[in-house]
């Protein structure tokens, strides 16, 4: 059972807010009866009509994008910048699973399946994200140890699950560090390095769970296979205690 406005929004016809508006205006019927309350719950067997048109459930779709730089991770941008959704032509109302900064590249999943997105994003499933960060300056092992012990970011302490120096370039005075995290806070990687005195000058997400960008050029995308989708749903069995 789910709320009527959520079910209407899932059809891909309109946002949840718009659905609420139409319900309150008396333009929605459930099994032939007008419903004007917002708390009503419906099941998949209920016949819902919006403006006398029968509501069909939107097909669930799943994509993996190799996000390029200079694209916003949102569905609509106030400043009219290009969004990740603009890069995937499809008729369903897809949205990104989590977010990557405007200048961050790499693995980004997009879907219209809320449960799928939640399985990947909710901390209780502990899905690991692996990033490669290019830093200004030369990093030493002692800084890596500090990161591994956990860093306070806002109200929470973040514990990277892996941190590894991949390359140090004394000529350009830059370092490359691979870092794995299970949380998904905004600007997390940049904040972690900032806390130990390093600026991130380039950031790529190499992996999100078992997804990577193999075979995808920057800006390219592909649909997920049914096997990949099932593998994400199998996370339900592996919930962390
Ligand atoms: N951490 C960041 O700082 N930026 C991203 O885009 C992703 C994780």
> Helix and strand succession?
EHHEEEEEEEEHEHEEEEHEEEH
Q: Indicate the percent of residues in helices.
A: 10-25%
Structural class: alpha+beta
Q: Any idea of the CATH topology of the largest domain?
A: Alpha-Beta Plaits
**CATH superfamily assignment of the largest domain?**
Pseudouridine synthase I, catalytic domain, N-terminal subdomain
Mean pLDDT: 94
Radius of gyration: 21 Å
Cofactors, ions, other ligands: uracil
Strand content: 25-35%
Structural domain tally: 3
What is the total tally of β strands?
17
Task: Indicate the CATH class of the largest domain.
Answer: Alpha Beta
- Named CATH architecture of the largest domain: 2-Layer Sandwich
Overall geometry: elongated
Largest sheet at a glance? 9 strands, mixed
Low confidence ranges? none
- Termini separation comes to 26 Å
Separate helix tally: 6
